[in-house]
Amino acid sequence: MIRQFSLEAWGVRSYELSAADAAALQASGLVRAELDPAPGNYRLRAGSHIGVAAGPDWELRVESHLDVRNLMFLLCYARDPDGWKDALATFGDSKDLLSSTAWGFAAAAERALLRGLLRGYRQLEERSPVLRGRLRVEAQMAGGGLPMPLDIVHDEYDIDTPENRMVLAATQLLRRLPLTHPLARQRLRRLVSQLDGVTQVRDHRQLRIPAITRLNQHYQPALILADIVLRAMALRADSGRSRSVTFSFELHRVFEQFLAVALTASLGRSGARLSEQVTGRTLDRERMLRLRPDLVVWKGGHCHAVIDAKFKRLEQDIGGDAYQLLAYLLEFGPPRGFLVSAQGKASEHTVCAVAKQLSVRPVNLDQEPDGVLRTTDALAAELLSLGLPHSHAHPVKGSAA
Prior knowledge:
By secondary structure, the chain is α+β, with helices and mostly antiparallel strands. It is about 35% helix and about 30% strand.
């Protein structure tokens, strides 16, 4: 019998569990298992990761209040701000994250393969009794200089392209997840058959979306979704066998990546630029209090503004988030910083002692994609309208930019 566990992001639920089951659920990366006051019970505490995980005799789901389609918009846009609409168009109205992703990917992949498998040239090095292509003289001599077999290099025109490898890898991973809907699994099985002859890559983390050209443009939506699947899937093995599989997203990171791509597109037209996860700066002279702001806007050689992204609702009481942003402003120099939240209300907070302004700006992700992009455009316009930083602002240096 398969036991099922479910809770919301940042939620807590108590279950009767053995120590081994609690450890397995925690190993999924979706929850933390804590001892409960009730004997034999554990509290499962979710954080900012959402998704599904499955083991030999259990299934775990962690869900978000954010609509699945809105979440997929953030993921698709962050990977391709030009092609996200085509990728998002393949998704239905399913409320289940995995089902929606599997159906959307299958539809995009089927559409990509309608014109036949993409072919391309790849360079092969092999030993052969027949001379094809060019002789690898150095390799031939290193092998003793014997006349046969020949060390040759030649170009092969076939279906074993990076695009097809990426689609196949995502298809195989979705098939391995026990929670994938049976009908979606059938579609994925047909895709595997179509991709027969394509190399299966062992380490899918090596795969990246290739440059999009007129030759592979029809693959673009499928590649965007394949990349989402490949980054979200994790297999955990025990004694060489797969013991659990997790398909998950970290909401804070998803929001931050979307915000970085959207603001970069808006700010780039003005000459300003954006840096993510700036390192190498500390608040103290002893270099013990390290700082790592989410996003930093640079303009005219100076830090123009600092942005801290928060996937949560921010109201009037911004608590510890305010102190974190203030620390960034004290080190980087600009008079104003922004807490950009997924939900909440806009507000202003003036720190008189050090003449710093903390601005809260919600993006409100529950609106349609075009509305979300209009909101980020408005935020970029506000950033550009700021006056020049004070003269004590730190210039760009080393790793900061």
